[in-house]
Write a structure and sequence with these properties.
YbaK protein; ProX/PRXD1; alpha+beta; globular; about 180 residues; 6 helices; 4-stranded antiparallel beta sheet
Length: about 180
Amino acid sequence: MNVYEGRPEDFECRKEKEQKVYEILDSLGIRYQRVDHEPVATIEACREVDEALGIEICKNLFLCNRQKTKYYLLVMPGSKNLQTKELSPQIPSSRLSFASGEDMERLLNVSPGSATIMSLIYDCDNQVQLLVDEEVLAEETFGCHPCVNTSSMKLQAADVFGPFLKAVHHDYIKVKLS
């Protein structure tokens, strides 16, 4: 698996939502490494990507409350499992469950298996609250998809949780998951 610096040479051939990620990162002067690969929809399928980039791709879970009035994008280490009873009191929101693929498409312009912090560029109305596990925030680097699950990126965590989130008008809530 080849590791590349910056946007792909075949940029114009990529999906528009992937192009938009590279455009915003480039406009902010955020450097990134990238690999292209077969579609990966699970953390287990990302192991080869992790090795190539020297990172652990984060698990991104799209959640909602029972009434479907509040939506959350939870970013956590791929090795952790979510216990909603542990998360709920920290945000606070009871009765969390996985949001539908339709809601993910509508709010973040990504399909299941492609959820990513980068998709917040499409949440212009700030309907999705970003939740980040403290272990992710403690890392120097951050791995994610550019709104498609056929490419993965390695960025500096400070760039993602600083200039990127500021540019897309989002903040995060730090959570602690065991």
